[in-house]
Amino acid sequence: MKTTIVCGLLGSGKTTFIQNFLRDSREKAVVLVNDFGKTGIDGEIFSANGIEYIELPSGCVCCTLKADLITTIEKIIATFAPEHLIIEPSGVASPSGVLEVLDLLSMSPVMVIGIVDATEFIDLYEAEIYGSFFQDQVVNSDVILINKTDLADEEKITKTLILIEKINPRAIITPTVHATLEAPVPDPLTGQRSIQRHASHLHFETASFRLNRTAGFTLYKKLFEAMKDGAYGNIVRAKSLVSTDAGPFRFDLSYGKVDAVPFASSLGEGRLVIIGDHLEKEALFKAINCSGG
């Protein structure tokens, strides 16, 4: 069984990459999702696309959930016997902790694919907002996607490329749009690798909400715009699957951008997960109820 770790900061495009990656695959693959928050969303996105997944929510696989990760991987092997295991750590987790677990299990071959957002990587790195966290993701990756190049100017893309080459000269680096690779992913690495540990994970608060009613699309979008503008604390990422009066939608807020995309299948119970700091949870709860959720 080969194993691929897909890492990247919140909103970089990990889930989109995995969907694209598996769309034409003929391998028996299982995705292990470590969604941050009590109500996982990425798993349902995979399910709507016919992708087999196992969820490991409510924490960070490189820290508090290491024992759970070992148990879950052993269970996946025994139950599914997949040809390919894909691990999507939380967007606040670094790959070094996951690699240490795979090393303990003597799992090989292993590939690490890192995804960075071309619109923000260079600014966040230079501002030293995430420090060694970025270092951990980039230096441990075998393939690095500079994603969202359709939304970034050439100067920013070039500076990002030069910086990543400097941090990790051995990585295969490729620009992408919608996290889509034009060439096949190289074969995973066999044998021992040098794991470079820089940071376990980013420390953020989370808030998770279950949405039991149909939301008004316009009001719900206004809620996401208000979150973007800092009305409920410093929110770095929010994602939601919700039934609205315009149909089921997937809402995303990532570093100042809000997207609302129709969801492919009907939803039972909607969910909203918010990640950031100084979150005003009571005000959020009231605002969600006012939007119909």
Q: What features would you describe in this structure?
A:
This protein has 293 residues and is α/β, with parallel strands linked by helices. The protein has two domains: 2-175, P-loop containing nucleotide triphosphate hydrolases (Rossmann fold, 3-Layer(aba) Sandwich); 205-290, CobW-like, C-terminal domain (Hypothetical Protein Yjia, Chain: A,domain 2, 2-Layer Sandwich). It is 31% helix and 26% strand. The protein contains nine helices and twelve strands. The strands form two sheets. A seven-stranded parallel sheet has the order 3-2-4-1-5-6-7, sandwiched between helices. A five-stranded antiparallel sheet has the order 8-12-9-10-11, with helices on one face. The protein starts with a strand and ends with a helix. The model has no long low-confidence stretch (mean pLDDT 85).
